[in-house]
What does this fold into?
Amino acid sequence: MSGPDLFTPLKIGAIEAANRIAMAPLTRARAAMDGVHTPLAVEYYRQRASAGLIITEATNISRQGRGYAFTPGIYTEAHIAAWRQVADAVHDEGGRIVMQLWHVGRFSHESLQEGAAAPVAPSALQAEGLTFIESGFSPPSMPRALETQEISGIVDDYRHAARCAKAAGMDGVEIHSANNYLLEQFIRDSTNLRTDRYGGSIENRTRLTVEVAQAVCQVWTPDRVGIRLSPITRSPANAAFDSSPQETYGFLADRLGALGLAYLHCVEGQTRGANAADAFDFQALRRKFGGLYIANNGYDRRLAQDALAQGRADMIAFGHDFIANPDLVRRLKLGAPLAQAPQSTFYGGGAEGYVDWPALEAHPSATPA
It folds into this structure.
Protein backbone atom coordinates (compact mmCIF):
# COMPACT_ATOMS: atom_id res chain seq x y z
CA MET A 1 0.00 0.00 0.00
CA SER A 2 1.50 3.28 -1.09
CA GLY A 3 1.75 6.23 1.25
CA PRO A 4 1.17 9.94 0.66
CA ASP A 5 2.89 11.94 -2.07
CA LEU A 6 4.45 15.39 -2.07
CA PHE A 7 1.11 17.08 -2.58
CA THR A 8 -0.86 15.43 0.22
CA PRO A 9 -1.76 17.86 3.03
CA LEU A 10 -0.16 17.31 6.42
CA LYS A 11 -0.63 18.54 9.97
CA ILE A 12 2.78 19.27 11.51
CA GLY A 13 1.98 19.45 15.18
CA ALA A 14 -0.49 22.33 15.32
CA ILE A 15 0.47 23.66 11.87
CA GLU A 16 -1.70 22.82 8.86
CA ALA A 17 0.48 22.35 5.75
CA ALA A 18 -1.05 22.31 2.27
CA ASN A 19 1.59 19.87 0.98
CA ARG A 20 4.66 17.93 2.11
CA ILE A 21 7.24 20.21 0.52
CA ALA A 22 9.23 22.26 3.03
CA MET A 23 11.46 25.16 2.07
CA ALA A 24 14.72 24.44 3.88
CA PRO A 25 16.53 27.25 5.72
CA LEU A 26 18.71 29.13 3.23
CA THR A 27 21.23 31.75 4.30
CA ARG A 28 21.13 34.53 1.69
CA ALA A 29 22.92 37.38 3.55
CA ARG A 30 20.55 40.11 2.37
CA ALA A 31 19.80 41.81 5.72
CA ALA A 32 21.40 45.01 7.01
CA MET A 33 24.44 44.76 9.25
CA ASP A 34 22.22 45.37 12.28
CA GLY A 35 20.27 42.23 11.40
CA VAL A 36 17.14 44.04 10.22
CA HIS A 37 15.71 42.58 7.04
CA THR A 38 15.05 44.79 4.03
CA PRO A 39 11.73 44.84 2.13
CA LEU A 40 13.29 42.48 -0.41
CA ALA A 41 12.88 39.67 2.11
CA VAL A 42 9.13 40.25 2.20
CA GLU A 43 8.91 39.62 -1.53
CA TYR A 44 11.37 36.71 -1.43
CA TYR A 45 9.35 34.75 1.11
CA ARG A 46 6.00 35.77 -0.37
CA GLN A 47 7.05 34.30 -3.73
CA ARG A 48 7.76 30.94 -2.07
CA ALA A 49 4.65 30.74 0.11
CA SER A 50 3.23 27.77 -1.81
CA ALA A 51 5.61 25.53 0.15
CA GLY A 52 3.74 23.48 2.73
CA LEU A 53 6.11 24.91 5.33
CA ILE A 54 8.74 27.61 5.02
CA ILE A 55 11.62 27.32 7.46
CA THR A 56 13.30 30.72 7.49
CA GLU A 57 16.95 31.26 6.94
CA ALA A 58 18.95 30.76 10.14
CA THR A 59 18.27 33.80 12.33
CA ASN A 60 20.58 35.06 15.06
CA ILE A 61 19.19 34.84 18.59
CA SER A 62 21.64 37.48 19.85
CA ARG A 63 24.54 39.66 18.75
CA GLN A 64 26.84 37.05 20.29
CA GLY A 65 25.20 34.36 18.18
CA ARG A 66 26.04 36.04 14.87
CA GLY A 67 28.76 34.53 12.71
CA TYR A 68 28.19 35.97 9.24
CA ALA A 69 27.70 39.50 7.96
CA PHE A 70 24.28 40.57 6.67
CA THR A 71 22.37 37.76 8.39
CA PRO A 72 19.08 38.62 10.13
CA GLY A 73 18.38 38.70 13.84
CA ILE A 74 15.37 38.16 16.08
CA TYR A 75 16.22 39.86 19.36
CA THR A 76 15.22 43.54 18.95
CA GLU A 77 11.98 45.39 18.26
CA ALA A 78 13.31 46.38 14.83
CA HIS A 79 13.93 42.72 14.01
CA ILE A 80 10.40 41.84 15.10
CA ALA A 81 8.86 44.57 12.93
CA ALA A 82 10.78 43.49 9.83
CA TRP A 83 9.96 39.80 10.27
CA ARG A 84 6.30 40.64 10.97
CA GLN A 85 6.05 41.95 7.40
CA VAL A 86 7.50 38.69 6.11
CA ALA A 87 5.11 36.54 8.16
CA ASP A 88 2.12 38.64 7.08
CA ALA A 89 3.08 38.33 3.40
CA VAL A 90 3.40 34.54 3.64
CA HIS A 91 0.10 34.25 5.48
CA ASP A 92 -1.64 36.49 2.93
CA GLU A 93 -0.62 33.93 0.30
CA GLY A 94 -1.95 31.06 2.40
CA GLY A 95 1.47 29.82 3.49
CA ARG A 96 2.96 28.72 6.81
CA ILE A 97 6.31 29.86 8.17
CA VAL A 98 8.49 28.93 11.15
CA MET A 99 11.68 30.69 12.21
CA GLN A 100 14.97 28.88 12.63
CA LEU A 101 16.75 30.05 15.80
CA TRP A 102 20.55 30.19 15.46
CA HIS A 103 23.69 30.67 17.53
CA VAL A 104 26.88 29.98 15.56
CA GLY A 105 29.16 29.48 18.59
CA ARG A 106 32.82 29.34 17.58
CA PHE A 107 32.11 29.92 13.89
CA SER A 108 32.28 33.71 14.14
CA HIS A 109 34.69 36.62 13.93
CA GLU A 110 35.47 39.26 16.52
CA SER A 111 34.45 42.01 14.06
CA LEU A 112 30.87 40.68 14.28
CA GLN A 113 30.84 40.58 18.07
CA GLU A 114 29.95 43.32 20.54
CA GLY A 115 33.14 45.15 21.50
CA ALA A 116 35.22 42.90 19.22
CA ALA A 117 34.90 40.11 21.80
CA ALA A 118 36.04 36.57 21.08
CA PRO A 119 33.32 34.18 19.89
CA VAL A 120 32.11 31.65 22.46
CA ALA A 121 32.16 27.86 22.27
CA PRO A 122 32.00 24.81 24.53
CA SER A 123 35.79 24.62 24.32
CA ALA A 124 38.53 26.95 23.09
CA LEU A 125 39.14 25.16 19.79
CA GLN A 126 39.75 26.99 16.53
CA ALA A 127 37.03 26.52 13.91
CA GLU A 128 38.00 25.48 10.39
CA GLY A 129 36.93 27.09 7.14
CA LEU A 130 35.97 30.68 6.37
CA THR A 131 33.23 32.92 7.64
CA PHE A 132 31.89 36.03 5.91
CA ILE A 133 32.50 39.44 7.48
CA GLU A 134 31.70 42.92 6.20
CA SER A 135 34.98 43.13 4.27
CA GLY A 136 34.78 39.63 2.76
CA PHE A 137 35.76 36.08 3.70
CA SER A 138 37.94 35.49 6.76
CA PRO A 139 38.98 32.62 9.03
CA PRO A 140 36.90 32.55 12.23
CA SER A 141 38.44 34.14 15.30
CA MET A 142 39.79 31.99 18.12
CA PRO A 143 36.88 31.33 20.52
CA ARG A 144 36.85 31.23 24.28
CA ALA A 145 35.18 28.49 26.31
CA LEU A 146 31.93 29.46 27.99
CA GLU A 147 31.99 29.46 31.77
CA THR A 148 29.44 27.10 33.31
CA GLN A 149 27.52 29.99 34.88
CA GLU A 150 27.20 31.71 31.48
CA ILE A 151 25.29 28.88 29.85
CA SER A 152 21.96 29.72 31.49
CA GLY A 153 22.26 33.10 29.74
CA ILE A 154 22.51 31.33 26.37
CA VAL A 155 19.31 29.43 27.20
CA ASP A 156 17.67 32.75 28.12
CA ASP A 157 18.72 34.17 24.74
CA TYR A 158 16.93 31.31 22.98
CA ARG A 159 13.86 31.89 25.15
CA HIS A 160 13.89 35.61 24.32
CA ALA A 161 14.32 34.96 20.60
CA ALA A 162 11.40 32.50 20.70
CA ARG A 163 9.24 35.23 22.25
CA CYS A 164 10.35 37.66 19.55
CA ALA A 165 9.50 35.12 16.82
CA LYS A 166 6.02 34.80 18.31
CA ALA A 167 5.65 38.59 18.38
CA ALA A 168 6.68 38.63 14.71
CA GLY A 169 3.70 36.43 13.81
CA MET A 170 5.50 33.21 12.99
CA ASP A 171 3.63 29.91 13.06
CA GLY A 172 6.35 28.30 15.16
CA VAL A 173 10.11 27.95 15.50
CA GLU A 174 12.83 25.49 14.60
CA ILE A 175 15.86 25.11 16.88
CA HIS A 176 19.06 24.95 14.83
CA SER A 177 21.07 22.17 16.47
CA ALA A 178 22.95 21.16 13.33
CA ASN A 179 25.74 22.05 10.91
CA ASN A 180 28.46 22.38 13.55
CA TYR A 181 27.04 25.51 15.17
CA LEU A 182 26.86 26.12 18.93
CA LEU A 183 24.41 23.42 20.02
CA GLU A 184 26.09 20.78 17.89
CA GLN A 185 29.51 21.95 19.09
CA PHE A 186 28.30 20.92 22.56
CA ILE A 187 26.89 17.61 21.30
CA ARG A 188 30.01 16.32 19.55
CA ASP A 189 32.94 14.92 21.49
CA SER A 190 35.45 16.38 19.02
CA THR A 191 34.40 19.97 19.79
CA ASN A 192 33.34 19.57 23.43
CA LEU A 193 36.23 18.90 25.80
CA ARG A 194 34.44 20.17 28.91
CA THR A 195 34.57 18.47 32.30
CA ASP A 196 31.51 20.14 33.87
CA ARG A 197 27.85 19.10 33.60
CA TYR A 198 27.87 20.08 29.92
CA GLY A 199 30.75 17.84 28.88
CA GLY A 200 31.99 14.26 28.95
CA SER A 201 29.04 11.85 28.82
CA ILE A 202 26.42 11.83 26.07
CA GLU A 203 23.84 13.00 28.58
CA ASN A 204 26.01 15.97 29.51
CA ARG A 205 26.94 16.90 25.93
CA THR A 206 23.30 16.87 24.82
CA ARG A 207 22.13 18.72 27.94
CA LEU A 208 22.24 22.22 26.42
CA THR A 209 20.16 21.25 23.38
CA VAL A 210 17.53 19.70 25.66
CA GLU A 211 17.53 22.73 27.97
CA VAL A 212 17.10 25.04 24.97
CA ALA A 213 14.20 22.94 23.68
CA GLN A 214 12.58 23.02 27.12
CA ALA A 215 12.97 26.80 27.32
CA VAL A 216 11.52 27.35 23.84
CA CYS A 217 8.58 25.10 24.77
CA GLN A 218 7.84 27.47 27.65
CA VAL A 219 7.17 30.16 25.03
CA TRP A 220 5.55 28.07 22.30
CA THR A 221 3.51 24.94 22.84
CA PRO A 222 5.69 21.94 21.84
CA ASP A 223 3.48 21.25 18.83
CA ARG A 224 4.84 24.46 17.25
CA VAL A 225 8.51 23.69 17.92
CA GLY A 226 10.77 21.68 15.62
CA ILE A 227 14.47 20.91 15.72
CA ARG A 228 17.17 20.33 13.12
CA LEU A 229 19.97 17.79 13.56
CA SER A 230 22.84 16.73 11.28
CA PRO A 231 24.40 13.59 12.80
CA ILE A 232 27.00 12.96 10.09
CA THR A 233 27.55 16.41 8.60
CA ARG A 234 31.18 17.44 9.09
CA SER A 235 32.90 20.81 9.21
CA PRO A 236 34.62 22.32 6.13
CA ALA A 237 37.93 20.68 7.11
CA ASN A 238 36.20 17.37 7.97
CA ALA A 239 37.41 17.72 11.56
CA ALA A 240 34.26 18.26 13.65
CA PHE A 241 32.52 14.93 14.21
CA ASP A 242 31.17 12.67 16.92
CA SER A 243 32.85 9.34 17.60
CA SER A 244 29.52 7.50 18.20
CA PRO A 245 26.87 9.42 16.26
CA GLN A 246 24.21 6.70 16.30
CA GLU A 247 24.37 6.43 20.07
CA THR A 248 24.75 10.17 20.70
CA TYR A 249 21.99 11.37 18.43
CA GLY A 250 19.74 8.45 19.33
CA PHE A 251 19.93 9.46 22.98
CA LEU A 252 19.18 13.06 22.04
CA ALA A 253 16.26 12.11 19.77
CA ASP A 254 14.71 10.11 22.59
CA ARG A 255 14.99 13.08 24.99
CA LEU A 256 13.56 15.48 22.42
CA GLY A 257 10.71 13.14 21.55
CA ALA A 258 9.67 13.08 25.20
CA LEU A 259 9.03 16.83 24.94
CA GLY A 260 6.40 16.28 22.23
CA LEU A 261 8.03 18.50 19.61
CA ALA A 262 6.24 19.04 16.31
CA TYR A 263 8.97 17.53 14.13
CA LEU A 264 12.53 16.33 13.74
CA HIS A 265 14.33 17.74 10.69
CA CYS A 266 17.49 15.86 9.69
CA VAL A 267 20.26 16.69 7.24
CA GLU A 268 20.90 13.24 5.78
CA GLY A 269 24.58 13.60 4.93
CA GLN A 270 26.87 16.47 4.05
CA THR A 271 25.10 19.76 3.35
CA ARG A 272 24.87 20.32 -0.42
CA GLY A 273 26.15 16.78 -0.94
CA ALA A 274 24.41 13.62 -2.05
CA ASN A 275 21.87 11.98 0.21
CA ALA A 276 23.65 9.65 2.63
CA ALA A 277 20.74 7.97 4.40
CA ASP A 278 22.48 4.64 3.77
CA ALA A 279 25.49 5.74 5.88
CA PHE A 280 23.50 6.32 9.08
CA ASP A 281 20.26 4.85 10.41
CA PHE A 282 18.04 7.91 10.32
CA GLN A 283 14.98 5.71 10.66
CA ALA A 284 16.23 4.51 14.05
CA LEU A 285 16.59 8.16 15.03
CA ARG A 286 13.08 8.82 13.80
CA ARG A 287 11.69 5.92 15.85
CA LYS A 288 13.39 7.18 18.99
CA PHE A 289 11.97 10.64 18.40
CA GLY A 290 8.52 9.20 17.78
CA GLY A 291 7.10 12.20 15.94
CA LEU A 292 6.99 13.69 12.45
CA TYR A 293 10.17 13.47 10.42
CA ILE A 294 11.35 15.96 7.78
CA ALA A 295 14.07 14.56 5.51
CA ASN A 296 16.61 16.87 3.91
CA ASN A 297 19.62 16.62 1.61
CA GLY A 298 19.99 15.72 -2.02
CA TYR A 299 16.31 15.00 -2.69
CA ASP A 300 14.87 15.40 -6.15
CA ARG A 301 11.26 14.76 -7.15
CA ARG A 302 11.68 11.00 -7.57
CA LEU A 303 13.64 10.41 -4.38
CA ALA A 304 11.20 12.57 -2.43
CA GLN A 305 8.12 10.75 -3.76
CA ASP A 306 9.73 7.39 -3.01
CA ALA A 307 10.62 8.39 0.56
CA LEU A 308 7.06 9.50 1.26
CA ALA A 309 5.39 6.55 -0.46
CA GLN A 310 7.58 4.09 1.45
CA GLY A 311 6.94 5.81 4.77
CA ARG A 312 10.56 6.91 5.31
CA ALA A 313 9.61 10.55 5.86
CA ASP A 314 6.55 12.69 6.51
CA MET A 315 7.83 15.77 4.65
CA ILE A 316 10.79 16.59 2.41
CA ALA A 317 12.80 19.81 2.66
CA PHE A 318 14.19 21.30 -0.55
CA GLY A 319 16.88 23.98 -0.31
CA HIS A 320 18.89 24.96 -3.37
CA ASP A 321 15.95 24.32 -5.73
CA PHE A 322 13.88 27.01 -4.00
CA ILE A 323 16.47 29.70 -4.79
CA ALA A 324 15.81 29.81 -8.54
CA ASN A 325 12.31 28.31 -8.47
CA PRO A 326 9.94 30.39 -6.33
CA ASP A 327 7.11 28.25 -7.71
CA LEU A 328 8.90 24.98 -6.96
CA VAL A 329 5.73 23.29 -5.70
CA ARG A 330 4.00 23.79 -9.05
CA ARG A 331 7.06 22.72 -11.02
CA LEU A 332 7.37 19.53 -9.01
CA LYS A 333 3.69 18.80 -9.49
CA LEU A 334 4.01 19.22 -13.26
CA GLY A 335 7.40 17.52 -13.49
CA ALA A 336 8.61 20.74 -15.15
CA PRO A 337 12.29 21.68 -15.59
CA LEU A 338 13.96 23.51 -12.74
CA ALA A 339 16.04 26.64 -13.12
CA GLN A 340 19.56 26.56 -11.71
CA ALA A 341 20.92 29.45 -9.67
CA PRO A 342 24.58 30.47 -10.01
CA GLN A 343 26.45 30.30 -6.72
CA SER A 344 27.62 33.87 -7.25
CA THR A 345 24.14 35.08 -6.26
CA PHE A 346 23.66 32.85 -3.21
CA TYR A 347 25.05 35.27 -0.63
CA GLY A 348 24.87 39.04 -0.39
CA GLY A 349 23.78 41.61 -2.92
CA GLY A 350 20.31 42.88 -3.73
CA ALA A 351 17.38 41.82 -5.88
CA GLU A 352 19.42 40.03 -8.56
CA GLY A 353 19.31 36.30 -8.04
CA TYR A 354 17.03 36.82 -5.03
CA VAL A 355 13.57 38.02 -6.06
CA ASP A 356 13.89 38.21 -9.86
CA TRP A 357 13.44 34.52 -10.69
CA PRO A 358 10.31 34.15 -12.86
CA ALA A 359 7.42 31.81 -12.30
CA LEU A 360 6.86 29.00 -14.79
CA GLU A 361 3.69 30.57 -16.19
CA ALA A 362 5.51 33.64 -17.40
CA HIS A 363 8.73 31.97 -18.53
CA PRO A 364 8.29 28.30 -19.43
CA SER A 365 12.00 28.05 -20.28
CA ALA A 366 12.79 28.79 -16.61
CA THR A 367 15.70 31.15 -17.24
CA PRO A 368 16.55 34.07 -14.95
CA ALA A 369 14.72 37.36 -15.52
Observations:
- The two ends are 43 Å apart (CA to CA).
